[in-house]
């Protein structure tokens, strides 16, 4: 699979922002490490193989939010019983994603791009959507900014991975195609600003902590369906 390489300005921005945030947030990273260790033991960092640029796998880092002996689907629903109490809080505010700044610094990821998919799940993507793996996955992006509502959609699904592959992947591919058609430094900065607002909105967004499925409007559409029709 032929990779789509980042431009030099985008890579330079990745390094500058990743280094700045790692330095600025180092006290928070230390605190979260201690919090995870005290509340659920070792390991404090969760490592998983994800599909990277050009179809090459890489190890993604996150703060562990599930019980150490957890097994099950590679996707996490909004009411997943495997998630610890502190882990649910970390997920709500996306604090578990902060170690991925190291992935950005290493060049495994970029600031804005498609969601980094679990490697075993990515290999099951329909062929017409495999093109997404030509691109470097992003710390944030249009799909990541819907992570709370997308997780809620998986609540109660007998086979969440099958639902993800057949229903959600085509929708995500459409959003990623729109993003990648013309991604510039301005686009990256725009998504960084949107991500900050998304994180702040977690304080009052019910989707972040509710196990309810998204509500339906008068036309019978879910709120998720409606949000996917609004341009990013």
Strand order of the largest sheet: 1-2
Radius of gyration: 17 Å
Mean pLDDT: 83
Tally of DSSP helical segments: 9
Beta-strand residue percentage: 5-15%
State the order of secondary-structure elements, H for helix, E for strand: HHEEHHEHEHHHH
Q: Show unreliable segments.
A: 207-232
Write the layout of secondary structure elements.
Elements: H1 8-24, H2 26-40, E1 45-51, E2 57-63, H3 85-92, H4 100-106, E3 110-112, H5 119-122, E4 138-140, H6 147-153, H7 160-181, H8 185-201, H9 223-228
Parallel strand pairs: 3-4
Antiparallel strand pairs: 1-2
Helix pairs in contact: 1-4
3D architecture notes:
The protein has helices at residues 8-24, 26-40, 85-92, 100-106, 119-122, 147-153, 160-181, 185-201, 223-228; strands spanning 45-51, 57-63, 110-112, 138-140. The protein is mainly alpha-helical. It has one domain (8-228). It has a two-stranded antiparallel sheet with strand order 1-2. The longest helix has 22 residues, at 160-181. It starts with 7 loop residues before the first helix and ends with a helix. Residues 207-232 have low confidence and may be disordered.
């Amino acid at each position: 699979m032929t990779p789509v390489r980042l431009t030099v300005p985008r890579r330079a921005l990745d390094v500058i922002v990743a280094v700045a945030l790692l330095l600025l947030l180092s006290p928070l990273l230390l605190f979260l490490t201690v919090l995870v260790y005290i509340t659920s033991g070792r390991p404090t960092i969760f490592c998983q193989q994800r599909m990277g640029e050009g179809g090459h796998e890489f190890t993604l880092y996150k703060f562990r939010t599930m019980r150490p002996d957890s097994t099950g689907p590679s996707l996490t629903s909004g009411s997943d019983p495997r998630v610890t109490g502190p882990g649910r809080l970390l997920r709500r505010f996306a604090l578990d994603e902060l170690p991925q700044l190291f992935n950005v610094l290493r060049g495994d990821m970029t600031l804005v791009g498609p969601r980094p998919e679990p490697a075993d799940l990515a290999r099951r993507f329909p062929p017409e959507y495999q093109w997404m793996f030509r691109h470097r996955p992003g710390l944030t992006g249009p799909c990541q900014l819907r992570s709370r509502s997308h997780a809620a959609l998986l609540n109660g699904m007998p086979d969440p991975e099958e639902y993800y592959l057949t229903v959600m992947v085509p929708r995500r591919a459409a959003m990623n195609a729109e993003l990648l058609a013309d991604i510039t430094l301005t686009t990256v900065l725009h998504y960084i600003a949107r991500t900050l607002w998304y994180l702040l909105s977690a304080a009052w967004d019910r989707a972040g902590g509710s196990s309810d499925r998204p509500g339906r409007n008068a036309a019978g559409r879910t709120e998720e369906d409606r949000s996917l029709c609004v341009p990013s």
